[in-house]
Amino acid sequence: MQYLAPRWLPGGNLQTLWSALYARRAQGAAPALRRERWTTPDGDFIDVDWLASIPGPTLLVVFHGLEGSSSSHYAQAFAEYARQRQWAFAVPHFRGCSGELNLAPRAYHSGDHEEVGWILQRFRARHRGAILVVGVSLGGNALLRWAEEMGQQASSVVNAIASVCAPLDLTVSGRAIGRGFNRLVYTRMFLRSMKPRALALLARHPGLFDRATMEAVRDLYDFDDVFTAPLHGFRNADDYWARASAKHQLQCIRVPTLVANARNDPFVPASCLPHVGEVDASVTLWQPLQGGHVGFVAGDFPGHLRTLPEQVGGWLTQHGT
After folding, report:
1. Looking at the annotation, which residues are catalytic?
2. Looking at domain 12-168+248-320, which CATH architecture does it have?
3. Hey, is 96 helix, strand or coil?
């Protein structure tokens, strides 16, 4: 596996931002999707977007990242990859990310392996062929946490998985995104949607947290301390970041797994990435020097996003079908 960024797009931040804003996601029109709503065991719902009219023998599932959706650039690029191969394709939205506020007094988080497990069991119940799963950023960490918890049993549900640019050590990544340029650009971008949604959930469930404290939040640590951690059973942000990080249990994974992280990712410092000795033999590490955070733009200006699905999809095909 290999990736080299084009000369006209240097640096992790440019590779991150350009992929999300300007690079071509599909050849022609974006793949058409249809939506299903699934009722969760606690009476809430999630929305699942499917590639329309392609009931292929292989199902590719993509778990999106923080504040992502089926409209995210990487989801559309993987949808195009699936369409070209006549695969079935689905993006399950974490709670609140499909455009409608969820009902229960909870949301989603980086270690939400129970939700991931319930979703994957639903896919397995209706799809008899191979199931290949990609988790991107937050979704990648949650997917790895599921595989760690499941151990040998994961292979009865899916054939192979891949995490892409997952913040494997949430404490290190949380500190990185809270400093300098990252704080000015990425933190503000995430909080622009996260805070209003949290406040809307507070209006539906009075007393869930303190409104004034939320309004004063300026970084992801404080947001997780006020909202994410207490809503999902963690003592505070430090407890959440420590217990939800996938890096510490990668030796527990037994299903074929690709862990892909660019070494110039602004969110995930190379110093915190795992080494071969820290993972099980079923885990393959791919750590190219370039790529940014879910960037991997290739080709002539303005570039395209085919490289990431081709590299990851090729690995999944080789190890899971």
Report:
1. 137, 265, 293
2. 3-Layer(aba) Sandwich (3.40)
3. coil
